[in-house]
Amino acid sequence: MNNGFIKVASAIPTTGVANCSHNVGYIRQLIDQAAEQGAAIVCFPELSITGYTCADLFAQQQLLDSAQAALEQLLHDTASTPIVAIVGMPIAVGSALLNAAVVIQGGHIHGIVPKQHLPNYKEFYEQRWFTPANGVPDTQLTLCGQTVPLSRHQLFEVDGIRFGIELCEDLWAPIPPSSQLTLSGAELIFNLSATDELIAKHDYLLSLLAQQSARCLCGYVYASSGFGESTQDLVYGGNALIYENGHALATSERFSLGPQLVVADIDIENLRHERRVNTTFHTPQADIRPEVIKIQSTLASGTRSTGRSQTSTFNLHRTIDPHPFIPTGTALDQRCHEIFNIQVAALTQRLVHTHARTLVIGISGGLDSTLALLVCVRTMDRLNRSRSNIVGITMPGFGTTDRTYHNAQALMLQLGITRREISIREACLQHFADIGHDPANHDVTYENAQARERTQILMDVANQLSGLVVGTGDLSELALGWCTYNADHMSMYNVNGSIPKTLVRHLVRWVAQQDPATRDTLLDIIDTPISPELTPADDHGNIQQKTEDLVGPYELHDFFLYHTLRHGSNPERIYHLACQAFTGQQQYDDVPQLNEPVGQYTPATLLHWLTVFYRRFFSQQFKRSCLPDGPKVGSVSLSPRGDWRMPSDASADEWLRQCEQLKAQLKD
Length: 668
Fold this sequence. Notes:
- The protein is of the alpha/beta class.
- The protein has 22 helices and 24 strands.
- Strands 15-14-13-12-11-10-17 form a seven-stranded mixed β-sheet. Strands 5-4-3-2-1-16 form a six-stranded mixed β-sheet. Strands 22-21-20-23-24 form a five-stranded parallel β-sheet, with helices on both faces.
- Helix 15 packs antiparallel against helix 16 (519-527).
- The model is unreliable at 304-312 and 585-592 (pLDDT under 50).
């Protein structure tokens, strides 16, 4: 594995029905191509050596002898190639004939897996020629001069990664063999198939693959017969498909006239994380404990080989999204619609349950308070209550700029809510005098006193008006602890608590596109630098305290947060993923130079902010341990009541130590 990934391939050769030597020639070419691209395992269609549609020719000894001779030639030709290949062929066991998958690598046959479920309907009559797997006991047989285990219960292991095999109809059964195999430890499933094309059948196939890979929390590699296999009434489109936990990673072009090869990287580390945290997966552990056959393959560890040369380079054949919380295209619109409605529904329930008459919210002219206010407005509209029941309070302080102040006032006016302005300057100066703090000293006391004064005002006004204080802090701020304890950290209900900063901006823009009355104001708020505005502006009245200059770019922290919480990734893996995500370069294992740009960031910059992320994430857990309620909108949440339970005093040393090791590698 390379930082948790293994590269796999699905191959569709051009088939000559009953022409074994022809078929093996194409199979060998595709094995070489898969090895060239760094794949550790490549899978071929069902009965790929003979062709699937041989029908009664399967009873001919000549075809069976030709198939075995072709396999022997393939073993000879690939003896120096470390890639694992899975091919299909008929296997005679006594008087029975099996439709089987044969696992080969380095000139050796490592195992044979027979098909369990044989179709016997309409155009498929496999039971006419083949015996199902349960009709033959597990055994050892001689094939191409080698003694080989034959069993439907086998698992194979490459570089610590276990995979199992099923064939075509097996997937369509009520309980596919892959369900048992994955419960027995298989992390990858390879399916050798020959599925003909019918109207709507392809869509059903895709849904099967998505569902099975998701249900089994596995990678699923599917290879089905293509051009040359079609004969008489049947047409085979050639489906090379690779799925991971419900998501398609690679798909071939259907009805192609030539051979096809698709390659993708399966995230084994992520699958293992999902299985660890999903207790439902472990409850029905399989009773069967299959034999595990270990296969030595340097390709699984990142070595690329064609039998002539080897290198240690690993190229990642998948796109790493730099903004994992933000979908693209129409999916973004759908995501925003769903999240906004979750927020509104949650706040509506809390408002009705508490019998609160008003919603009280601090309006700063920034992104977070803007989104929270928009949720409040939609909530009142849904309850058919006047928007005047929303009390928006601007609380100018020492760092408030004209831009944010005017945007806050304009937005409240345009939305028709009750506006109040309460300056915190005099109250803070009195407080500084009371505690003996010099107001010229713009330290953390200077900043946090302002934040706590604002929260006190909101809470007290809410008491006056039988109201509910609506919090505005987002998921990214909670991860970094970028909030003042018992100030903006606290509210009576926080509607933004599980929304990352990078997504907040898109939600506000989504609302702006629907509301001409507030559009210009909302777009200007989106373009305003993110800031708590707790220190004075510069000489030109512009924001001087910019959050991303202090704690780092939110797009990086959201990336780090997603992979830390969603996939349980370690610092080294996250660093490599970040290099891939923010540059798009395919070179995965090569360590860039210290100051060599990676997109808009250097490797040193990525590691710096990754280190900051871990340091803050661990040290600020005590703030997350006592968060107010708020709606969960996605799979990544920091609620201490169910989603994230972490000791407040856990040590970050192990994570920071790996960051330091990465920095040392950059300097060497």
